[in-house]
Design brief:
two-stranded antiparallel ribbon; about 50% helix; single chain; 15 helices; Conserved hypothetical protein from pyrococcus furiosus pfu- 392566-001, ParB domain; alpha/beta
């Protein structure tokens, strides 16, 4: 399985893979179509590992598309009746294009099966950091279940280590309440991995979030079974936030479209802004630099 040359190509990234479809040895199984098609002729892939699309991100991308158009074509494959296609990579651009009012979009057509389509979708989303940890884990598990990948083969396909694949898959063992925290960004994958074998993962997760613990502190807490309160985080971190602080957090979050956390200390404090994608970080930097 690991000797398959197409899998070695995938490990080098989506751009390299798409670039290779012009080569003679690819001509029989891949077709490039540098063209535009009506947007209604394109459908999303229900097997796309990405499930969550931020409305704020989509609105920002739609505005960019109105001004500059779609810079990177949507990668599709033929589906259904002639002239209709299913998205392999680029669903976010397709959604934003609809919001922007575009009637047609640029595409690259590839003749690939379900397995390769899923591989490409995962590679693109992982490289762009568009998947939350649970979506990433579910995408890996889908390839294992549907196409009998080993963890080592899967790591080669997506350009990650086998240990990364194994640690990501372990997140699927967590209860729903913690998986939801991973999806909305309340808890990081590093923190969540410390809870996989814990007896009371939900209770420990609350202590980690309320105490603002580092991954190292979370590991120590999990090893002790949560018997000790996270005193090292400081009494102010454990105290309930007052209504004014929570209202200010919500006001700033609503304004910038990102999760904002305010923590007071005896002297000063900190404001934390969480982001899930590089696009969100770029937009935040743009707003800060322009005032």
């Amino acid at each position: 399985m690991s000797d398959d040359p197409s899998r070695r190509r995938l490990g080098r990234g989506l751009a390299a893979l798409i670039g290779e479809i012009d080569r003679p040895e690819e001509a029989e199984r891949s077709v490039v179509a540098d063209k535009r098609v009506p947007i209604e002729f394109i459908a999303r892939n229900p097997r796309n590992p990405r499930r969550n699309f931020s409305e704020v991100d989509l609105a920002d991308l739609a505005q960019s598309i109105r001004e500059h158009g779609i810079v990177q074509p949507i990668v599709v494959r033929p589906a259904g009746e002639a002239g209709h296609f299913q998205i392999i990579a680029g669903e976010r651009r397709w959604r934003a294009a609809q919001q922007a009012g575009l009637t047609d979009v640029p595409i690259i057509v590839r003749e690939v099966d379900d397995k390769v389509a899923l591989e490409i979708a995962i590679v693109e989303n992982v490289q762009r950091a568009d998947l939350n940890p649970i979506e990433e884990a579910q995408g890996y598990q889908q390839l294992i279940d549907d196409h009998s990948y080993s963890q080592a083969d899967l790591g080669q396909v997506i350009g990650k280590s086998r240990s990364h694949v194994a640690n990501t898959l372990r997140l699927l063992k967590l209860p729903d309440v913690i998986r939801d925290m991973l999806v909305d960004g309340t808890l990081s994958a590093g923190h969540a991995r410390t809870l996989v074998t814990a007896e009371n993962p939900a209770g420990l997760a609350k202590q980690i979030v309320d105490g603002g613990l580092s991954v190292r502190q979370a590991e120590a807490l999990a090893q002790k079974g949560g018997a000790e309160e996270p005193a090292k985080a400081g009494p102010s971190a454990r105290a309930e936030k007052d209504a004014d602080t929570m209202a200010l957090e919500k006001q700033i979050s609503d304004t910038i479209g990102l999760k904002v956390t305010i923590k007071h200390r005896e002297r000063g404090g900190e404001v934390k802004i969480g982001y899930k994608t590089l696009d969100q970080l770029d937009e935040l930097c743009r707003r800060l630099s322009t005032g």
